[in-house]
Amino acid sequence: MTITAGKKKEKLDRLAELAGRDDERGVSLWKEAFRRLRRNPAAIIGAVILAIFVLVALIGPFLVPYSPTDTIGIREGLIRPGTIPGADGDHWLGYDHQGRDEFSRLIVGARQTLLVGVVSTLIGLAVGAVIGGVAGAAAGLGGRWGRAIDNALMRVIDMMLALPSLLLAVSIAALLGASLTTVMIAVGVVSVPVFARLLRGSMISQANSDYVLAATSLGVKKPKIALSHVVPNSLAPVIVQATLTLATAIIEAAALSFLGLGNPDTAVPEWGVMLADAQQYLGIRPGLAIYPAVAIIITALGFTLLGEAMREALDPKLRK
Fold this sequence. Notes:
320 residues; mainly alpha; MetI-like fold; elongated; transport; MetI-like_sf; OppC_N
């Protein structure tokens, strides 16, 4: 276990523990977090960025002036060796190396980028929730055998946390072959240990709550207590982490596409693929790399601002 992995594990456990607490006035920490978010400028900026991104991804492809696969520049004889025209009145961001409208491809690529980020996060959330839920229920309510199951599952999760996330994603993508599905699976697997550790820690914190003791004293079966009461009250840190994971998922997916492990069909616009295609034309049209790179940075920034603001509102130690 590396020092970095150990710090990451402690950070996740701390967030999970705090999510289950109530404040001194009897108001849940989660409700108090929403009150603080409404007054946090970073959260508002992040939410605005994400709203614009989602809106562009959903309706942008229906409003673009040109088809993202139409080689207009080649047809009109504008693309020649060593020359790629820049922006003009009809093509706001110019053409790419195949004469396609760069602005249209950037807008349509937002949908693919959002799809990769959301699906990969959902994969990590689903698998991580199953592992973390089993481990948390076993540790909090399962007795001696439950603790043994928890220890076995957490050692596997700790080993995954010890590996650099991008290296693990590249290894998985290389094994499965280059495709958009491969990128989503690889990035999703990387986020599994984070969600598992968070949910497990939150469930252990909730296992000692009064409502669990009351349900146990009334004879309610432990599986029902875990599924009906403990899990729903343990999801706050998982939701916060999902927002942060979307940011890293978009960046890691772009990195895999840049390395040639993404969708092999370059006709389908995706910001990471566009960035990879532009690298050999940096001397001619650096804007071809700048436009998708800026889009990735701004989108990841939006998710990060909102996620960090949510984490700050949830953790009393980080409140200002």
